[in-house]
Write a structure and sequence with these properties.
Length: about 600
């Protein structure tokens, strides 16, 4: 007999009754019924009830064990009586009558309980993550993550993609976030950077003559945490393809994502390919965001012209100063009491907006304070633009365009919830396309890349030379699911002349480009195929499939909100001798000053 187990704790069934079995696992729960002690034994595969009589010399040993002790139990598999069958357990028809016991590892008193669903602080959960990972929901999420990655690898290989591993120690690159830097011992004063993404390397793979590349790629970015972003590191399905158009990339990625989500959807609906494509400008107009949640059927409409020069002077004056007016439909809201509208107006003011004006459409026309200041023609234009009819209402935002977009997206979500319009149990995908290549920095007024500096401009060199930079669009795209951005991607700029020009407009000199992207530029000079790709986030995919609101719940060993690893104690100080080897001298005077100031700032 195997020294630890003949079966797993999730394996025994009624057909095994009468056999001698050995199980190893963790003591999940104990129940002392006086003459009988029940021990629920748990491993990765499941849970089996084990039982021992108080007359057994082993009874005292098992009774004294704390939860989460590791034991090996040997005995006969017996069928449970009808009234003690546990239909909720796959092993619930049988139990193990304990004949032999060996304690492999006794547990001390637990700082957090594994059994049950008690809530614990983030600090406790991360400091004792090895215990947290034993808990059913977290353990299930990490198992799901493994299954998702295995399915992705199978699907990508079957689609003809080759898996590569790209360097972890590389050069710094302007990817939109801060790099993690690694000092070089052999080259004083010089630093490696951990890759924010394998962007340049995957392009070099295409230039090297390979046709389809993928990688489950680790990426490192020194940026703040949020619910859908883990500080420090994350993983993405990195994809690149040679001789492809944007349509080719979409056609390759959509079956993989749709297939993954269908496989693990657990009854939830999944958008069938081809996924809807929404131009960036339309997304900002209709949803106020380039990450729309298409489970929400509400869309904003631009009604600025309906208010320009109107009798509603508040909006008319703001429009003359550059404001826009967005209309947000509220289907069926005409029958709501006045308090419904007043409550939303007050909420908007608490959120920092000027309020939420509204018009109610009933038989006989538009009604409400705003409607009284508009003629019939204007209210009809609003009704048509918002797509509403009798029995509906329309709310209005009047503000500068960016503010209207930002708060408009929040209002859309609030109205969807209040009116009960959102679709549940569904994964709704879309592509956001036609991103602007450049944007104006609000602080400096300078032209900067809006998204990815390696994207091919639509129209190529001609667009860069003839159009206002803010009018140039990129062959760039994001894929979004349920309001979560899963991926950014692009058809790449593979021409040195176009690349120099694109960076020149963003304020980079020829020397800057050659210093930062010398390897890529040299490769372009020796024949580069048109190529493109994308990189859906593994963590976010699993977060959606697991129906978790926080990405931490699907990462085995995440950092906390302050980018600290509480389990391993990172970041940490290092010995002065190591710093000397790396030619580094610390100046912590400013850091200490900031630490002293923080308590005063928080008061």
């Amino acid at each position: 007999m195997h020294p630890y187990r003949t079966h797993t704790c999730g394996e025994l069934r009624k057909a095994d009754t009468g056999i001698r079995a050995r199980l190893s696992g963790w003591v999940h729960r104990k129940r002392d019924h006086g003459n009988l002690l029940f021990v629920d034994l748990r491993d990765h595969f499941g849970l089996t009830q084990c039982v021992i009589d108080s007359s057994s010399p082993l009874f005292a040993t098992l009774a004294s064990l704390r939860p989460e002790s590791v034991v090996t139990l040997t005995g006969e598999v017996v069928e449970r009586s009808v009234d003690t069958v546990n239909a909720a357990l796959p092993t619930g028809d049988v139990e193990l009558a304990i004949g032999e016991t060996r304690v492999e590892s006794a547990a001390e008193t637990l700082p957090i309980q594994v059994a049950g669903d008690a809530e614990y602080s983030e600090e406790l959960r991360l400091r004792y993550r090895f215990l947290d990972l034993r808990r059913e929901s977290v353990h299930r999420n990490i198992t799901l993550r493994s299954d998702v990655i295995a399915s992705i690898r199978r699907r990508m290989t079957e689609a003809g993609f080759m898996e590569f591993q790209t360097p972890i120690l590389t050069a710094s690159s302007p990817e939109g976030a801060r790099d993690y830097l690694v000092p070089s011992r052999h080259h004083p004063g010089l630093f490696y950077a951990l890759p924010q993404a394998p962007q340049q390397f995957k392009q070099l793979v295409m230039i090297s003559g390979f046709d389809k590349y993928f990688q489950i790629a680790p990426c490192f970015r020194d940026e703040d945490a949020r619910a859908d972003r883990s500080p420090g590191e994350f993983y993405q399905l990195d994809i690149e393809m040679a001789f492809v158009t944007q349509d080719d990339v979409f056609a390759a990625i959509e079956p993989v994502l749709a297939g993954i989500f269908r496989e693990f959807a657990r009854g939830r609906e999944v958008t069938e390919p081809p996924f809807p494509r929404i131009p960036f400008a339309d997304a900002m107009l209709k949803y106020g965001s380039d990450k729309p949640d298409l489970r929400n059927p509400l869309e904003m409409a631009d009604v600025t012209e309906a208010f320009r020069g109107s009798g509603f002077s508040l909006f008319a004056k703001l429009i003359e100063k550059g404001a826009v007016v967005r209309a947000i439909p509220a289907p069926g809201a005409a029958g709501r009491p006045r308090s419904f509208f007043d409550k939303l107006n007050e909420w908007a003011r608490e959120e920092g907006a000027g309020g939420l004006g509204y018009v109610v459409f009933e038989e006989g026309g538009a009604k409400g304070p705003i409607a009284r200041n508009l003629d019939v023609d204007r209210t009809e234009r609003i009704r048509l633009a918002a797509g509403v009819g009798d029995g509906d209402a329309v709310f209005f935002l009047c503000a500068p365009q960016r503010a209207a977009e930002s708060f408009g997206s929040i209002v859309l979500a609030r109205l969807c919830d209040d009116l009960g319009l959102g679709e549940s149990n569904a994964f709704r995908f879309c592509w956001i396309v036609d991103y602007p290549l450049y944007e104006r920095d609000e602080e400096t007024g300078a032209i900067a890349f809006s998204h990815n500096p390696f994207s091919m401009p639509q129209g190529g060199m001609e667009a860069l030379e003839t159009l206002d930079p803010l009018e140039v669009k990129a062959l760039q795209y994001d894929i979004v699911c349920n309001g979560v951005e899963l991926s950014s991607g692009a058809i790449r700029n593979h021409r040195p002349d176009i690349m120099y020009k694109a960076f020149e407009i963003a304020g980079y000199s020829t020397r800057d480009v050659e210093e930062k992207f010398g390897g890529l530029l040299r490769a372009f000079q020796y024949g580069a195929p048109p190529h493109g790709g994308s990189a859906p986030g593994i963590d976010r995919i699993v977060m959606l499939l697991a129906d978790e609101p926080n990405i931490r719940e699907v990462i085995a060993f995440p950092m906390n909100q302050q980018a600290q690893d509480l389990l391993m104690g990172a970041p940490a100080t290092v010995e002065p001798t190591r710093l000397k080897e790396l030619h580094i001298k610390l100046d912590l005077s400013k850091a200490k000053s900031q630490i002293r100031e923080e308590p005063r700032k928080s008061k």
